[in-house]
Automatic annotation (TrEMBL):
GO cellular component: ribonucleoprotein complex; ribosome
Protein name per the record: Large ribosomal subunit protein uL4
Organism of provenance: Kineothrix alysoides
InterPro entries to which the protein is assigned, alphabetical: Ribosomal_uL4, Ribosomal_uL4-like, Ribosomal_uL4_dom_sf
A Gene Ontology biological process term: translation
Quaternary organization: Part of the 50S ribosomal subunit.
Gene name for this UniProt entry: rplD
Alphabetically ordered keywords of this record: Ribonucleoprotein, Ribosomal protein, RNA-binding, rRNA-binding
Record-linked Gene3D superfamilies: 3.40.1370.10
Length: 218
């Protein structure tokens, strides 16, 4: 079981926390991590690109010159791909690039990504992130205290002050794993994904976020 330090907003160590090996100590499956990243990028593609083939370009029905005797290479149409204004060879057409991954594969990929951050000493836990308002300057000061310039910040609640304060800081992204325990059935709201974890390198979590992630994914 990994044991990491817990810091406050001033960047001072205030304790230790044990991370659940079922989430933060699994065997890293690089193939699933790669597949999860490719899936997210593929699913985000609009797939609306389109170009015309020689069959779709208007004109070109008349043979530009006779077959023999001109000294030119034989040509059948001015809309062939080698002509200016001609069609495109193997032209792209609108298509759906998305593909599916099994639920267990997605969870394994997420656990592998989180584990890789722990193994690389790129996971920072803070006791809390609380801002009085939307103040980018204050949030930037917190990041400087923690010694990070590029990171994914994960909170345990949907904190608009943190989300909006981080919005204008380059190379900083925010996510959350929130659990609504008001009713009999727990409602999980999560925006964490493998792509952001791998892209931003360092992951900054609140203690509440760690507890929620372990409760949801363990």
């Amino acid at each position: 079981m990994a044991n990491v330090s817990v810091y406050n907003m001033e960047g001072k160590e205030v304790g230790k926390i044990d991370l659940n090996d079922a989430v933060f100590g699994v065997q890293v499956n690089e193939h699933l991590v790669h597949m999860a990243v490719v899936q997210q990028l593929a699913n985000n593609r609009q797939g609306t690109q389109k170009a015309k083939t020689r069959a779709e370009v208007s004109g070109g029905g008349r043979k530009p010159w006779r077959q023999k005797g001109t000294g030119h290479a034989r040509q059948g149409s001015t809309r062939a791909p080698q002509w200016t204004g001609g069609g495109v060879v193997f032209a792209p057409v609108p298509r759906d690039y998305s593909f599916k991954m099994n639920k267990k594969e997605k969870q394994a990929a997420l656990k592998s990504a989180l584990t890789s951050r722990v193994e690389g000493n790129k996971l920072i836990v803070v006791d809390e992130l609380k801002l009085d308002g939307i103040k980018t300057k204050e949030f930037k000061k917190v990041l400087d205290n923690l010694g990070v310039s590029k990171a994914l910040v994960i909170t345990g609640t949907i904190d608009n002050n943190v989300i909006c304060s981080a919005r204008n800081i380059p190379a900083i992204a925010t996510s959350y794993v929130a659990i609504d325990k008001a009713g009999e059935i727990k409602d999980v709201l999560s925006t964490i994904n493998v792509y952001d974890i791998m892209k931003y390198g360092t992951v900054v979590l609140t203690k509440e976020a760690v507890a929620n992630i372990e409760e949801v994914y363990a």
